[in-house]
Structure to design on (223 residues):
């Protein structure tokens, strides 16, 4: 049975988004995600990593990148988180995946990443197909 | 079942934000907003202050939708 995850897009908001639940052995949280085919990486906001009680202090910072024009340090979480989506048929679909964490270099930066970015790495590894018809406000991921 | 219901509520909050984006932008452009049950429950220009306000009001930030509302002259592009 093919599973589909709806992606919300509206005339004023041209992104493809929905909600995902994230779970670690230490906590859980909800966050809206954006499917970004221009991003090779899947990245979660720093605040969500804190809500998951991930051992952020123990993680090694890698290169700095700019997200939303703000410098972020990228942290690699070595173990997988569980990503859970609600499918169109009302069923739950879960995957383990190890995203990167984007930590703003300054806490008071104007633009802080609040969305989870689903990059092409996630789509490739999990075998998702992306369909979108922006003119008719339709989009979905198909497993 | 509880998980599915919570999911549906969060999805409706996101859909409500996106459908009402222009009117929200009129009032809250340049701020972060917190949405719960199709209402803006808190806002602030500073993300950390918004989180503090939510915690002080007894909200669980892991279950609240938080969005940055760009000004009319701003566009949200992830890499910049």
């Amino acid at each position: 049975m093919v599973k589909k995850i709806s992606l919300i897009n509206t005339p004023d908001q041209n992104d493809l988004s929905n909600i995902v639940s994230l779970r670690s052995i230490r906590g859980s949280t909800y966050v809206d995600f954006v499917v970004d085919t221009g991003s090779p990486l899947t990245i979660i906001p720093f605040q969500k990593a804190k809500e998951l009680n991930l051992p952020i202090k123990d993680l090694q910072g890698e290169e700095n990148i700019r997200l939303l024009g703000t410098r972020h340090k990228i942290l690699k979480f070595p173990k997988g988180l569980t990503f859970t989506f609600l499918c169109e048929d009302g069923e739950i679909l879960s995957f383990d995946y190890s995203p990167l964490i984007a930590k703003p270099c300054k806490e008071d930066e104007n633009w802080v990443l609040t969305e989870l970015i689903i990059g092409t790495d996630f789509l490739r590894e999990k075998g998702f197909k992306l369909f979108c018809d922006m003119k008719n406000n339709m989009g979905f991921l198909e497993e | 079942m509880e998980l599915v219901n919570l999911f549906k509520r969060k999805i409706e909050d996101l859909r409500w934000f996106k459908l009402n984006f222009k009117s929200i932008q009129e009032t809250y452009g340049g701020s972060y907003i917190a949405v719960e049950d199709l209402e803006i429950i808190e806002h602030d220009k500073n993300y950390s202050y918004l989180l503090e306000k939510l915690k002080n009001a007894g909200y669980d930030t892991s279950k609240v939708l938080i969005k940055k509302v760009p000004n009319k002259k701003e566009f949200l592009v992830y890499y910049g």
Chain B has a mean pLDDT of 91.
